Amino acid sequence: MRPAIVVLAVIAATLALLPPTLPVPLIDDWNYQISVRRLVEDGDLWVAPWTAATLLLQIGWGALFALPFGVNPVSLRWSTIVASIGGILAALVLFREIGITPKRAVIGALAIWLNPVMFALSYTFMTDVPYVSLMTTALFCTARAHRHGSVRWLAIGSPVAGLAFLVRPQGILIPGAILLWLLIARPGWARRQWLLTIAATLGPCLVAVGLYLAWGVRAGLPSAQSVYVDSMRAAGIVGIGDLVWKLAMVGGFYLGLFMFPIVVGAAAALPHAWRTATWPIRHLALLWLIGALLWMRWYIGAHDGRSFPFVPWGSILSHDGLGVLDADGERTMVFAHWVFRTIGIAAALSSAVGLLLIAGRIAPPRAIRPDSRSDDDGNSPLASMGGLLAMLGVGQCVGVVSPSLYIRQVITFDRYFLPLLPIGIALILWAMRERPMRLMPSVLALALFGVVSILGSQD
Q1: Distance of CA 186 to CAs 7, 155, 182, 395, Å?
Q2: Burial annotation 79-89 (CB, 10 A radius, 16+ → b, else e)
Q3: In the chain, which stretches have pLDDT less than 70?
Q4: What is residue 312's predicted lDDT score, i.e. its pLDDT?
Q5: Residue 105 near residue 429 (C-beta atoms within 8 A)
Q6: CA nearest 76: which of 20, 116, 120, 132?
């Protein structure tokens, strides 16, 4: 059976179990719904002053569903469901493009769909899922460009990144990360036509930025977008530094959670990966694990026994259940503290294993580096496909800092880490190529994620 059919069948089954028919706006849906209504009823492309997202494409996308079905939470929620499905299929072809077998690619695609954060946000009209779907499509174009040495595919991916920018401003970081990777890795196919490569990477996306600024001149940019600059000034260097290291710790746990369904199937490859990894990589993985566990112990003591997910309110995952609460303590805790501590330890272990596998493949010992230059074209370890994906992930990590400055008292919201979900899964699957992986543990982990997502997302 074709991988796409399997993935679509699972998605259809989950939608049948939990249809998106709740006629109530969730999180910031009410705000974005106002903009869609203005466009549909008045033909006015308007963004509320208190809106931080760029949002223009989100408004137009929602209007396509609102025109035939009315401006209401259900029609707009379906627009996100469709965008989410498109992103899952984009991830599937991305995984195949980087050399993942069909069965593993299906596991990876379902690990995105059934992830509790992705699943819950797919039932909203928030910008997170459409942005991640467009970002994943841009990643596929970039991976294809690298694999085939094709500047044309860079030129195709750049406008997709521009569309992502018209949903969330972090879209500009996609071509920015690609350009930085090109400058560091200097792959041969890019060096042969350097100026054309840079133009293809940046040009189309910058057109989208220019269109947004032109709209802003006419309609006025939302005043909320200046809040981030004000928050940066208020935090200062010390405050920003404090936030960044906290984001690094919390993000590491979430990345481990994102990769968990793949990591549990990769246990058979762990002994060989440990033996073949260089000592700096082994020490780095161990240091991360020790640091993560110490961080969790500190957090438990400082927050009345609470641990993972380390965000007291406003996130999809919390001690109070799955879904966003506007205030802490509106519901009793779903599980005891020890359950969340167990999840945190599992996420820390998963991220440490993922770090060992991924870093060991990006920078293997010289004695076992492949002779083929098709995937590792260049003088830097970052020239590999894994290096490209890792650089794109770093770019999206940078994008977490700015919106988190405004809420740094709670560190961040977990949905800001969502772009790392497809990137993390792509990286761990890429690292597992030609390594043994047991699919049944991954399937069981996906089943667990699916149960949690479905039961937790229904109101």
Answers
A1: 36, 18, 5, 18
A2: bbbbbbbbbbb
A3: 1, 320-321, 323-335, 366-380, 458-459
A4: 75
A5: yes
A6: 20
Identify the pLDDT of residue 305: 87
Contacts of 48 (CB under 8 A, 6+ apart): 31, 34, 35, 222
92, 202 contact by CB (below 8 A) = no
CA 369 to CA 387: how far, in whole Å? 14
For residues 400 and 397, give the distance between their C-alpha atoms in angstroms, rounded to a whole number: 5
Of 16, 50, 39, whose CA–CA distance to 224 is shortest? 50
Q: What is the DSSP letter of 364?
A: -
DSSP letter, residue 321: E
Domain ranges of the chain: 3-457
- Report CA 102 to chain centroid distance, whole Å: 22
Residue 191, both tokens: 């060096």
Asked whether the beta carbons of 325 and 312 are under 8 A apart, the reply is no
Rounded Cα distance between 316 and 306, Å, is 16
Residues in contact with 372: Cβ distance below 8 Å, sequence separation at least 6, in sequence order:
none
CB 410 within 8 A of CB 314: yes
Using CA atoms, how far residue 187 sits from 147, 180, 380, 386, in Å, is 11, 12, 9, 13
Is 307 strand, coil or helix?
Answer: strand
For the chain, the C-alpha Rg in angstroms (whole number) is: 21
- pLDDT value at residue 374: 44
Contact yes or no for 189/399 (Cβ under 8 A): no
Contact 412, 367 (CB under 8 A): no
CA 432 to chain centre: 20
**The predicted structure's pLDDT at residue 368:** 53
Tokens standing for residue 27: 């999180």
Task: Pull the structure tokens for residue 135.
Answer: 């970002």
Structure tokens at 423: 């990137």
Nearest to 126 by CA among 27, 15, 59: 27
Answer for the pair 230, 190: CB distance below 8 angstroms, yes or no: no
Q: Is 318 helix (H, G, I), strand (E, B) or coil?
A: strand
CA triple 55-59-60, angle to 5 deg: 120
Host H or E run for residue 322: strand 321-322
C-beta separation of 213 from 438 below 8 A: no
